[in-house]
Amino acid sequence: MSESYELSVEVEVTEPEVAVVTVSGDLDGETGTSLHHQLANQIVHGRRFLVLDLRAVPFMDSSGLNILIRASNEAKRLDGSLHLAAVSDVVLRLLDLTGISVTTPVHASPEDALAVIAAQRSPTSGRADEAARSAASASDPA
User: Fold this and answer.
1) Which contiguous run of DSSP H or E holds residue 93?
2) pLDDT digit string (tens) for 48-100?
3) Hey, CA dihedral for 9, 88, 40, 121, is it positive or negative?
4) pTM exceeding 0.90
């Protein structure tokens, strides 16, 4: 019986700064380098917002977690974000146990993640926040 250590990684660039990375296979020390290189490549090419579709990842170990943490930190350094989507129950349990699900958004689907990213990047959402702050300070007696 031979084991395959291959990990399949497919990238779809949905916008110049946004990519959906679909991962298939076990994410561990033997396979994680491939994902790490793909994510680093996306960041180098200006993708600050990354969505990882993990529906086909049945297993992840600490090496996989390390890759997610590094990618999240790199995206945040560039004022972007990493979003995890369609995570299996086994992987979600690991994310919950390690606290990664608290610091990195987890969504039911890649489409849900893309909708959140679109809302965060929307110029009108920034203006609404600014208008709300302005209105609050205007009504505040000084």
Assistant:
1) helix 89-98
2) 999 999 999 999 999 999 999 999 999 999 999 999 999 999 999 999 999 99
3) positive
4) no
